[in-house]
């Protein structure tokens, strides 16, 4: 484990549209039956998503929650600090500037972590699903992103990431939970108005879940967690699909969008893996049946598999790979950046240019 041998624990953090989770694990542990990196050990979770403000994902508010949780997990394990941390966050690629600026020093000083990976949630989903093997992963929960890793010899060039979608509920995430939920609610409101394309079964489910349809805009628009609220209606669309052609059509459209994203990122390698991960796929056959049919048509060379683990598992695996000097996934300034701390307190971010940054004069101290 190199210079990190004296600290055998790593920390994984998963920040998504449906909440925040933290897990502690032994860096050198391996799951029963083998596998690519350790499985999460003791965990902490909160259903409240990370705060997003003018600077993107707010680092101080995230630290205020995960640092006390991490300390409690360390106390439970009888450990002092961690060798490495991986933070996987929805929106890291486009909204992660505050995290990249503030987390390295804050986590080094509060938890002793001198190695940090800052990853898009799609990357932690990939690591949880496939480990560090080349392939493609479709991660679908509140949002939807497809990521592929090319083998080093693919196309005569070096390996690297391919990404499709994951642009958030306003610009993309097509086929994800918020997309399905919004489409279902729109169909319900069309029925409420008497417009073409409406669904009476979805209107009935809207009123059972949220109350009178006419009051829904006033309840939904002020919510800071609108994507999660929209996604909460996706299972209702799934429950109506077997008796409602409108709901069935929404899920077939979702399956087509998801398969298009997978087609854009999947390496053209015979027998390559495409793994499905994320809570949306717990909907089962109403979504999975049309999705598998679309994937078979668009990616006949690929093998569709179940994910070996979830994004929190992936965050733990990436932290372990950092601590044991075994990280093989491509480093990327937006999708997977790696910060290593030096003995003088400076930090260097892999995948970016420029000199190391000096430590701040004052540490960030999260409030309890």
Task: Explain what this protein looks like in three dimensions.
- The chain has helices at 59-77, 92-95, 97-111, 121-130, 177-193, 200-210, 216-220, 226-231, 234-240, 245-265, 285-298, 311-323; strands at residues 9-16, 19-26, 43-46, 52-53, 56-57, 84-89, 115-120, 135-140, 144-149, 161-165, 273-277, 303-306, 336-341, 347-350.
- The chain is of the alpha/beta class and 368 residues long.
- The protein has a seven-stranded mixed β-sheet with strand order 3-2-1-6-7-13-14. It has a five-stranded mixed β-sheet with strand order 10-9-8-11-12, sandwiched between helices. A two-stranded antiparallel ribbon has the order 4-5.
- Mean pLDDT is 84; it is low at 1-6, 153-157, 342-347 and 352-368.
Question: SSE layout and pairings?
Answer:
Layout: E1 9-16, E2 19-26, E3 43-46, E4 52-53, E5 56-57, H1 59-77, E6 84-89, H2 92-95, H3 97-111, E7 115-120, H4 121-130, E8 135-140, E9 144-149, E10 161-165, H5 177-193, H6 200-210, H7 216-220, H8 226-231, H9 234-240, H10 245-265, E11 273-277, H11 285-298, E12 303-306, H12 311-323, E13 336-341, E14 347-350
Parallel strand pairs: 1-6, 6-7, 8-11, 11-12
Antiparallel strand pairs: 1-2, 2-3, 4-5, 7-13, 8-9, 9-10, 13-14
Helix pairs in contact: 1-3, 4-12, 5-6, 5-9, 5-10, 10-11
